[in-house]
Amino acid sequence: MAPYLQPRVDGDLRSILDSHDTLHRMLDTLGSPLNLVLPDRLAANVRDFEITLRAYDLGGTVYFAHKANRSSALVRALATTGAGIDVASLGELQHALGAGIGPDRIMATGPKSREFLWLAARTGVTVGADSVPELAELAGIVAAHGLPRVRVMARLSGFASTGTTVLSRASRFGVPVSDLDPLWTVLDKHRDQLDFHGAAYHLDTNGLPEKAAALEGCLEAMAEAQRRGLSPRAVDVGGGFGVNYLADSREWETWTTQLTGAVLGQRPPITWDGHGYGLRNEGGRLRGALAVYPAYRAVAGPAYLDRLLATASAAHRRPLGSLVLDNLYDLHLEPGRALLDQCGAVLTRVEEVRDGLVRVAANSNDVGLEAHGVLMDPILVPRGEPRPDDGPVEVFLAGNLCLEADLITRRRVLLPRPPRAGDLLVFANTAGYLMDFSAGSALMQPTARTVAAWRHGGDWRWCLDERYWPVTGREETG
């Protein structure tokens, strides 16, 4: 059999997923698929990151990357903490302001329309700029409308290590550190419109050496800014702190080993149509690279931030956290996935079981495991009284779209017993990017509603996501 990839589930998420009657009532009321979020866990995750910052005596703000989840309940819960929010669209900015998050706690990042820039400038949020032309356009808007100076962070890219060679992948975002003169020119020219707050990076990688090189590169750029008469006060290290999705490292090692054997023809396939997840067999030799998220991560979230700050600078041979503190800079970060660890799940109803294939009332856009390369098995929640255990079964999970490609998983998953129509398959820990990032109404299939749940004494209460407010939503029960 294919190895089990048991999801890591703890705390309140474990508690509510063990409440089978509650889960079935939710789905019976609102249909399948259904997104479940736990706002209180988000607040706890914020505190864990803040504790790590304080351990290095660093000031700064934890900005939640809004794009990771659309939930209003999560953003409203965030408003009650000391954290900020990173918004990457005009709609996200409006959502954050409407949820009660003040402009001083909002960072506007990503590609920006002129309307997005105007609202950011008009409300006084910090603008994380991706390019020199963007900064010039923002300065023009500020001048034309007589607005106060806007605080800006400049995103940098193309970092090079001063020690061991570290490969930095190309990015379409950011000003190359090899040519910062145009950045200094525009900031100097528009001092009356732009308040340069500091340098930032956001790398599409989990690699610690690359992130350490980027942080060191930002510190060097800020030193140059000071020499030019600017006054940077913060460095932003972006996101990418990661999540450990699996309960057991051995299962992950076993699965990757078996996939390699299957690709090489040394064992029967464990994936749909021999899918190799980036690996291929060329004349008996393994080629390619495993294109999946490292589902088991021994160091993730706040622990990854700690590891980054403890890393020695290649140039100064001192911990990077100490260098940030020596310069009296604040350190900002923008976790998305990591702040949503254990904050939610996707509930789906089993519709049909046949010949090793289980079809659920959801599709691959509702449960984005394959799209984001996150591999973990679902949790089976039977309807009614437990049935005799028929033993574990291997199945493929298919969605509700009339498309061959609509597979919830391209690999066989292991369930503890054969599922039946009406049972639930719950995909745990999906709040970060795996829940609604790609959701749509293809073929007019319904998109998932979202509910927010919280503890009330020894019970669970819940309401529709849009009805949750920190002061009144807890009176609305399921």
Summarize this structure briefly.
The protein has 478 residues and is an alpha/beta fold.
Describe it for me?
The chain is of the alpha/beta class. It has three domains: 11-38 and 342-465, Lyase, Ornithine Decarboxylase, Chain A, domain 1; 40-242 and 297-340, TIM Barrel (Alpha-Beta Barrel); 249-287, no CATH class. 28% of the residues lie in helices and 20% in strands. It has helices at residues 11-17, 20-30, 39-55, 72-78, 90-98, 114-123, 132-144, 181-189, 208-227, 249-263, 302-310, 320-326, and strands spanning 34-37, 63-65, 84-87, 106-108, 126-129, 150-157, 175-176, 194-200, 234-236, 279-282, 285-288, 330-332, 344-354, 357-360, 379-381, 393-398, 413-415, 424-428, 449-456, 459-464. Strands 1, 13, 14, 15, 16, 17, 18, 19 and 20 form a nine-stranded mixed beta sheet that branches. Strands 2, 3, 4, 5, 6, 7, 8, 9 and 12 form a nine-stranded parallel beta sheet that branches. Strand 10 and strand 11 form a beta hairpin. The protein is globular, with a radius of gyration of 24 Å. The mean pLDDT is 93.
How many beta-strand runs? 20
Structural class: alpha/beta
Shape call: globular
CATH class of the largest domain equals Alpha Beta
* Whole-number total of structural domains: 3
Query: Would you tell me the overall average pLDDT?
Result: 93
Report the radius of gyration as a whole number of Å. Answer: 24 Å
Oligomer category:
single chain
CATH superfamily of the largest domain: Alanine racemase
User: What fraction of the residues are assigned to beta strands by DSSP?
Assistant: 15-25%
Distance between the termini: 40 Å
Number of helices: 12
The biggest beta sheet, please? 9 strands, mixed
Uncertain ranges? none
CATH topology label of the largest domain: TIM Barrel
